[in-house]
Design brief:
Layout lengths: L1 H42 L3 H25 L2 H10 L3 H27 L12 H14 L3 H16 L4 H23 L9 H25 L1 H4 L12 H33 L3 H37 L3 H28 L1 H5 L11 H33 L4 H25 L4 H25 L12 H10 L1
């Protein structure tokens, strides 16, 4: 009977995780498709525009990735409060999450609008900067909506309602593609804006997505109960401080991981254009498959947080292990595809019959074999991180990430790829080693963390008193 009960709990948790993870993974894939399509359409304007636009898009995506990581602290807070049936705490968390998003947006907008003042410090040519600035100044209008949308997306997902998120993101992506074409080339009687048109299209789609999720929350009786738009301008220092305490380490970890890939790309560039081209092919492919375990990670954070809020510590542990297991299974399948079908994957990017592509194809095949291992450990580490976030454990994972990604991953990649002359393959083994160390240590931490010592419910007396009076 006990075995049957364990199996029932396991199957129930797998089902609950997949119900959350599939829509969230779909939303992540749709967002990745937006960046991919934007890059393709930039190429329609010429190689110089593609280079400048790619630079601008990389800058925007990097700062949004880090800042979205900071506001992602909302997810475990709301999930645990939902599990503990604390609607007043949920309302305060969402409202302070909006405050945090707006305060983060201000410096980011300035960073983009005045990028021509600091890009020369990074060795960018005046011609490239001049081409990139119209894009950066137009897409800067999308910073506020993308961060506030991230807050509200985490809110509805943490309440186990992720389906509207994927619907809104997919519709927003389709609108972005159409708007790109219209504004780039001046269709429907509008002026041709070129690269700036892609930035304006993205900004418009982001504002539309924000309006859609606000409309959804305002129209649903379930969400009216939480009254997140009532008195949204109030500043609650205790809750804001908790968001920062959890969110800043997440943002730092995102920056560290992004920095590992950026520096690896720069090292790859020292090996020549063939190595850089092969690297881009494999990294783009890995980035797409990574969206699925990222969605599973977001779902794992929510499930662990909800179970912890219900004071179900064994359920929280099971939720984390199920999420890690599903991510491992998916990425193992992707790794097998990388290993068995390298030519078909490379053929999506390059003409396999062109003789001048032969060297890039050969190296890309070798990198895909390393990436087959890379896939598995990358899926494990991102889901283990998500499980720990559900326990509101973000500071130690940040330190683990710094050591694993920079101290071990970049260092081993440099020695294997540059010092020992393994080339691009050595650099990719460095990435795999760094992610493998993170995967093992983060999973070990989640499995051995004494959950009975964790605080359940409200961590701050002031918040508890205030929430009680509201409800």
């Amino acid at each position: 009977m006990k075995t049957c009960s364990i199996q029932t709990q396991l199957l129930s948790e797998i089902q609950a995780c997949l119900q959350l993870a599939l829509p969230l993974a779909g939303a992540q894939l749709a967002q990745a498709a937006t960046a991919f399509v934007d890059t393709l359409m930039m190429g329609m304007l010429g190689s110089a525009i593609l280079g400048a636009g790619g630079l601008g898009a990389s800058i925007f995506q990097s700062v949004i990735l880090v800042s979205s990581g900071i506001v992602a602290a909302l997810s475990p807070i709301v999930a645990s409060a939902y599990g503990a049936q604390q609607p007043g705490r949920i309302r305060k968390a969402v409202q302070q999450g909006v405050w945090l998003a707006l305060l983060l947006a201000l410096p980011i907008v300035g960073l983009l609008v005045w990028a021509d003042q600091w890009l020369p410090w990074l060795g960018q040519s005046p011609a490239t900067i001049q081409l990139a600035m119209p894009y950066l100044r137009s897409i800067a209008w999308g910073v506020v909506p993308v961060l506030v949308f991230a807050v509200l997306r985490n809110f509805v997902a943490a309440l186990s309602d992720p389906r509207p998120v994927i619907l809104i993101v997919v519709v927003g992506t389709l609108f972005n593609i159409v708007a790109n074409y219209v504004l780039m080339f001046g269709k429907l009687g509008l002026p041709a804006l070129g690269l700036a048109g892609i930035g304006w299209a993205s900004a418009l789609s982001l504002w539309g997505m924000l309006a859609a999720i606000i409309g959804y929350i305002a129209s649903q009786p379930r969400y009216r109960f939480y009254q997140v738009f009532r008195g949204w301008w109030r500043f609650e220092p205790a809750m804001f401080q908790e968001l920062l305490r959890l969110g800043l380490p997440i943002g730092v970890l995102s920056a560290v991981e992004t920095g590992m890939f950026l520096l690896t790309m720069l090292l790859m560039g020292t090996l020549g254009t063939i190595a850089l081209a092969a690297h881009q092919v494999v990294l783009q492919t890995a980035a797409i498959t990574f969206m699925v375990p990222l969605g599973i990670s977001l779902a794992t954070t929510i499930r662990v947080g909800q179970q912890l809020g219900q004071q179900n510590r064994s359920g929280a542990r099971l939720a984390g292990l199920v999420g890690i297991g599903i991510a491992t299974l998916f990425m193992s399948l992707m790794g097998m595809l990388f290993w068995l079908l390298p030519e078909r994957i490379i053929g999506l990017y390059l003409d396999l019959d062109r003789p001048d592509n032969a060297a890039v194809i050969t190296l890309a095949q070798q990198l895909l074999q390393v990436a087959a291992v890379f896939q598995v450990v990358d899926g494990i580490q991102v889901c283990a991180t998500g499980a720990l976030r559900g326990l509101k454990d973000t500071q130690i994972p940040m330190l683990i990430g710094i050591i694993a990604y920079w101290g071990i991953g970049l260092t081993s990649g440099y020695w294997l790829g540059i010092a020992w002359a393994w080339g691009g393959v050595g650099l990719w083994w460095g990435l795999a080693i760094g992610l493998a160390v993170a995967a093992v240590v983060l999973t070990w931490r989640f499995c051995t963390m004494p959950l009975q010592q964790l605080k359940i419910g409200l961590p701050d007396t002031a918040i508890e008193t205030s929430a009680g009076t509201d409800d």
